[in-house]
Amino acid sequence: MTKTLIxxxxxxxxxxxxxxxxxxxxxDPDSTFEDMQKAIEKDPILTADILRIANSPMYGISRTINNxxxxxxxxxxxxxxxxxxxxxxxxxxxxDLSPYNMTKEQFATAxxxxxxxxxxxxxxxxxxxxSVLAPAAFLVDIGRVIIxxxxxxxxxxxxxxxxxxxxxxxxxxxxxxxxxQTTDVTATLFNNxxxxxxxxxxxxxxxxxxxxxDDEKVMAAILKAVRETVLPNGEITEESIAEAKDTIEEYExxxxxxxxxxxxxxxx
Length: 268
Known about the structure:
- By secondary structure, this protein is mainly α.
- α8 (about 145-155) packs across α11, α12 packs across α13 and α13 packs antiparallel against α14.
- The chain has helices at about 5-10, 15-25, 35-40, 45-55, 70-90, 105-120, 130-140, 145-155, 160-165, 170-180, 180-190, 195-205, 215-230, 240-250, 255-265.
- The longest helix is centred in the first third of the chain and has 24 residues, at about 70-90.
- It starts with a helix and ends with a helix.
- It is globular, with a radius of gyration of 18 Å.
- The protein has a single domain (about 5-265), classed as Hypothetical protein af1432 (Orthogonal Bundle), CATH 1.10.3210.10.
């Protein structure tokens, strides 16, 4: 990593105390839905963010979610915990993704679609994996914001745009410009935030699931397929779905569940 990139990662403040408290509650096997609800409701801004995301049509909830209790009950602790971390992460950054020729709104759409795809894919057949994959899917690309800031400061903002225009691999362009790709930066930031090591490992290996093994390899492959499906600007195309299906076939993942999840996202 370049000196500028390291400086920008180190400059990100710790997670707010309220979010750290929620993480402790989430990690406590004896905690209840009510414990999480009460901790979240102490923060009105966090509560508003959670309700906004939870009411997205991508989750297929037939009625309006009016409070945190309903959000936790209908979507589960894993999803709501991911909303909490996302809200905290977004509050830590000034988001300028102009080097990627993306708007803040496109970035937010991509993150929300990745989370919704992951939840809809796994909620019925592999719900235990959501404790790792829900926050990983929602936040894996937050490192892109830090890289973007670094490229602007180092007068290299055109590097990513040129790679996109030429159809080249974005991760390779990121490494060439600042010595690390998005997943590396996100994993490093999450390590600084003392988040679950399993989340960090799955994010770090989502570009190359074969670099790890066993259940972690499967989860890294799922995250890889999710990121392939949803393009950085939030779009889902026939080509991106086909690329994800290649990964699903290679790692023998649940294709039927994936197809149903994609259909739900596209219908929202």
